[in-house]
Amino acid sequence: MSHLFPTYNRWELELVSGKGTVVKDGEGRTYLDFISGIAVCNLGHSPEVVKEAVKEQLEKVWHVSNLFPITAQEEVGGLLTEHTDLEAVFFCNSGAEANEAAIKLAKKHTGKTKILTFKQSFHGRTFATMSATGQEKVHSGFGPLAPSFDYLPYNDESALEGIKGDEIAAIMVEIIQGEGGVIPGTTAFLKAVEAKCREWGALLIVDEVQTGIGRTGRPFAYQHHDLNPDIVTAAKGLGSGFPVGAMIGKEALTASFSPGTHGSTFGGNPLAMAAAKATLETIFVPSFLQEVEDKGAYFMKELKDKLSAHNVSIRGNGLMIGIGLESEAGGIITDLRENGLLTLPAGPKVIRLLPPLTVSREEIDQAVAKVEEALGKATAVV
Ligand SMILES: *Cc1c(COP(=O)(O)O)cnc(C)c1O
């Protein structure tokens, strides 16, 4: 038997090397990677700037503990706060840990106990973040869940009415629900969520673990909606594949995370900071972000044009795109893989496309042609 817990249904395809958007399997077959390690390899595979930064740090010191000052944390913290309306960062190792920090901080800071999240949301697999996730299949077998989360319907302003606000510490929301099916939040809905937070004295926590780090053509996706969150969480793309997460918050919250209240042995370690610094210095540049926005718009338009004969819903923002189908997506995703394009499901009926932000227009054209072909084949069979 395998030596591993079977927590993942793995594809029979081991990727042994990668450069840019292209990855290679053990038999030398190449694929266009429109998964990017699930929105992680935003600079493509093996980006030189990140590789060089990590190598350089590797020669100096790998790990020292947060008992010591780590200058690179200040530098990455500076990049994150400069590109948000926030002032302070806590570094950890994953998206779930960033959300854990946010949940703890919101309770401590407000002195209140309840957190509202949304149906079909995804916030992580630790006990608290699993409990925050609004999907029964994620909770199954693990009850009773961590108190106290309530799940409201997403994109439904009316569901926010009639709630007793005095126990609510925070509302945690994704700007585009990723795992839940690539569902973009509307500005009206997101602004209504923010207004309720203000009315109730609750914190607005935006989970940007998937949508952040330039994925939608802005440093963070909330910046498309004129929001002013109290806390933003990031991870996936932050270190270009090096494990690192961050919770970024308002200065007023810093007093609630005093020494001894929270911590992480590895969080913000020098190697992770070297990777994050090189990543952010490349992505948080106006011309780079403009390219992401332009390529995303081009990709979306090409998909809409080329797939117009099919009954599909194409949605997303920047280079986070979902193709909603009327039937199961699994067969088409397998077909695409066999035809050299790696894509991801998001729920049972959605094909999710998350290419590296460095993807070329030619690669987008190739991907669109493969999707068109796969959908054509699927309809022909029916
Ligand atoms: C992936 C994801 C997480 C969990 O991140 P991990 O690094 O796997 O813990 C949390 N929230 C969102 C929106 C995600 O997409």
TrEMBL record:
Binding-site positions, pyridoxal 5'-phosphate: G95, A96, F122, D207, E208, V209, Q210, T265
One Gene Ontology term from the biological process aspect of the record: L-arginine biosynthetic process
Keywords per UniProt: Amino-acid biosynthesis, Aminotransferase, Arginine biosynthesis, Cytoplasm, Pyridoxal phosphate, Transferase
PROSITE patterns in the record: AA_TRANSFER_CLASS_3
Enzyme Commission designation: 2.6.1.11
Catalytic activity: N(2)-acetyl-L-ornithine + 2-oxoglutarate = N-acetyl-L-glutamate 5-semialdehyde + L-glutamate
Signal peptide: none
Cofactor list: pyridoxal 5'-phosphate
NCBIfam families to which the protein is assigned, alphabetical: argD, PRK01278.1, PRK02936.1
Protein name in UniProt: Acetylornithine aminotransferase
Underlying gene: argD
